[in-house]
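ARCHIVE CARD
Drawer: 12
Card no.: 0347
Subject: one protein chain, sequence and derived structure
Cross-reference: see card 0346
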Amino acid sequence: MVRGLEDKIFNAVSYTILALVGLVTVVPLLYVLSVSLTPYAEVLKNGGYVLFPKEITFNAYEKLLSNSAIPRAFQITIFVTVVGTAINLTLTALLAYPLSRKGMPGRRLFLFMVVFTLLFNGGIIPTYLIVKATGLIDTVWALIVPNAIWSFNVLVMKGFFENLPEEIFESARIDGAHEWRILLRIAVPLSIPSIMTIGLFYAVGHWNSFFAAIMYITDRSLFPLQVVVREILMMTQQPLENAEDMVPTVTMQMSAVIFASLPIIAVYPFLQKHFTKGMIIGSIKG
């Protein structure tokens, strides 16, 4: 196939834009990683800007992990992410599946209630009072229960279930399968890409949970990782007597950012194929 001049110009412009977008995305992350691994003397020598360190040191990470608050916050964040995501997916599927069945009694009323919560909410203070009244203050469940289900994800998963061929469900009912069996043995297995996609949204939301923690948690021993990282980022730079030996605030800050971001960055490539497939399925109706 012979490409014309217009195609070549289009491809050149497209590749240039993609390269620029890639640089804008990668360079800041590379800078943060490099500064966290570079001795502070070299950072000062280069005016605070290092992309490719000449010498690598893990002093900042060693000092970061020696702080008991970091491992404890890491464990809390993992618990909230794993347990919270499992609860989210369970409740979302249990609500989305019946809403996707057109013969369900009261379907329109329940759909209206779900959509209504997308437009209106009780506000910060009433929500806090509810969380306090239920005894969730200063517990890890305060980071899970108030966000146990997201209305938008319910509607997305409902769309996935509606895209499944109705003939499959009718055949299962003829064979005597009840709705629970249809959901667990047919709807869920066929919707794995969509479930993985929504699960990724839930997991990232829990991992980055910050506002709920500062609202409902006052016990420092229950702070999740993002709150502890925020405290590290708010640290002020202290004067250095020996830049070769000391671990200054700036490298601690960069190592904290990498430490908080690395798990999600490491997991995403394994979920990318499900994420892409799930988004494609969700965009097609039929």
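Annotation on reverse: The CA atoms of residues 6 and 12 lie 10 Å apart. The chain has two domains: 1-57, 58-282.
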